């Protein structure tokens, strides 16, 4: 663990050094969610019904933008070889990358989602399930993105392959997350959707770091 937390700090410093990537993801999220009301009209009832889906699609697409640099920069400048020789288990290296990605992308998206939800007329009783679902969902997206980034590492057109790989796997995240904040759902239905999303997060937290570590080892060889 003495090497794990410094690695997270290093990844956060690198992300802040290339802050344009994170800023672009956040601006993309804001622009996408703001454009929807212009397209479908300003009627509060219609916006409230569609708001969970709007927020979730915007968050999913925005979270994908910084993933290309997650391992790509280390692969290009040789830092990946040093990580492979550091003695830290590769699953822990992948987990550190996941934590840094969530702290620099997922957490800001979660913060921005609150005023966006208010703007889209999300009912008060749906805001907490929406944010709780986004918390679990952005963590899951970071895990899936880390595994996907490691798998396509070194491949030709990795930037094209990565969304194709991650988007189908992220489908349950969007479905359960949007259902958890759906105003037409009962309280029991929203709770059930949150529990399903938590179960999917637990599965990804177990499998994705191991899969990413194996892919990193293959890329290093």
Any chance you could write out the topology, listing elements then pairs?
Elements: H1 4-17, H2 19-40, H3 44-64, H4 68-77, H5 79-84, H6 90-119, H7 124-151, H8 158-180, H9 187-220
Helix pairs in contact: 1-2, 1-6, 2-3, 2-6, 3-6, 3-7, 3-8, 6-7, 6-9, 7-8, 7-9, 8-9
Report what the structure shows.
By secondary structure, the protein is an all-alpha fold. It has one domain. It is built from nine helices and no strands. Helix 1 crosses helix 2, helix 1 crosses helix 6 and helix 7 packs parallel to helix 9. The model has no long low-confidence stretch (mean pLDDT 84).
Concise overview:
With 221 residues, the chain is an all-alpha fold. It has one domain (4-220). It has 9 helices and no strands.
Overall domain count: 1
The shape, in one word, is: elongated
**Main sheet characteristics:** none
Helix content: over 70%
Average pLDDT metric: 84
Structural class: mainly alpha
Tell me how many strands there are.
0
In whole angstroms, how far apart are the ends? 25 Å
SSE string: HHHHHHHHH
In DSSP terms (H or I, runs of 4 or more residues), the helix count works out at 9
Q: How large a portion of the residues is in β-strands, by DSSP E?
A: under 5%
Radius of gyration: 18 Å
Residue stretches low in confidence (pLDDT < 50, at least 5 long) are: none
List keywords for this structure.
221 residues; mainly alpha
């Amino acid at each position: 663990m003495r090497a794990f937390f410094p690695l997270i700090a290093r990844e956060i410093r690198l992300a802040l050094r290339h802050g344009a990537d994170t800023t672009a993801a956040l601006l993309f999220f804001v622009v996408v969610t703001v454009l929807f009301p212009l397209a479908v009209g300003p009627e509060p009832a219609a916006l409230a019904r569609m708001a969970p889906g709007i927020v979730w699609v915007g968050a999913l697409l925005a979270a994908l933008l910084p993933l290309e640099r997650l391992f790509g920069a280390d692969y290009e400048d040789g830092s990946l070889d040093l990580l492979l020789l550091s003695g830290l288990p590769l699953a822990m290296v992948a987990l550190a990358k996941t934590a840094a990605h969530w702290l620099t992308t997922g957490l800001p998206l979660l913060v921005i989602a609150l005023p966006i939800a208010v703007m889209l007329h999300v009912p008060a009783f749906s805001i907490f399930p929406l944010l709780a679902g986004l918390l679990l969902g952005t963590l899951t997206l970071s895990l899936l993105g880390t595994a996907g980034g490691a798998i396509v590492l070194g491949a030709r057109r990795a930037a094209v392959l990565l969304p194709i790989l991650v988007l189908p796997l992220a489908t349950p995240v969007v479905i359960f997350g949007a259902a958890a904040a759906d105003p037409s759902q009962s309280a029991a239905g929203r709770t059930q959707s949150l529990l399903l999303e938590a179960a999917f997060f637990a599965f990804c937290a177990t499998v994705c770091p191991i899969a990413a570590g194996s892919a990193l080892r293959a890329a290093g060889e």
